[in-house]
Design a protein that fits this description.
globular; alpha/beta; 23% strand; single chain; 41% helix; 7 helices; two-stranded parallel ribbon; 5-stranded mixed β-sheet
């Protein structure tokens, strides 16, 4: 997060656009340097062929879901939709409101996912976990979007 970025309200169209930009931009070079190059190579390989969609739902805000649509490793669409189940995403990930707040406060996205604080509720588990580190790093970037969450 840079100091010039405005803080946006969670699950608004403006926030969704910023989320798309963040996941497409990926991590800052300083963060990349803190992990093994082979980790990022694996993520780059998984990302290059990744085409799917995610519905990210806040259980405390029914009717407001972030839908991220991926094509060949790029998030091509990010929008706030109504019902998470009706969004038709390949994967539905849900979390309690407090968990999303933790992510925006800097909690480890990998820990939140692996400890099932962010829970995969729908989708092929095996296919999902084949790209899990890409998902984790994308969630981490999402968490770096300056977000106001009440």
């Amino acid at each position: 997060m840079t100091t010039t970025e405005a803080t946006l309200d969670f699950l608004t169209p403006e926030w969704a656009a910023a989320a798309r930009d963040a996941v497409n931009r990926g991590p800052a070079e300083e963060l990349k340097e803190s992990k093994l190059p082979t980790y990022w190579e694996w993520i780059d390989n998984a990302r290059a062929r990744y085409s799917s969609s995610w519905a990210l739902a806040d259980l405390g805000r029914p009717g407001e879901t972030l839908l991220l649509e991926w094509s060949e490793g790029q998030c091509v669409r990010a929008t706030v939709v109504g019902d998470a189940e009706a969004a038709g995403a390949t994967y539905l990930l849900t979390a309690k409101h407090d968990v999303w707040r933790q992510l925006f406060d800097g909690a480890d996205a990998g820990r939140l996912l692996m400890c099932r604080d962010i829970e995969l509720r729908r989708g092929n588990v095996l296919q999902f976990y084949r790209a899990v580190y890409f998902v984790v790093e994308s969630l981490a970037e999402l968490g770096r979007v300056p977000t106001r969450i009440s």
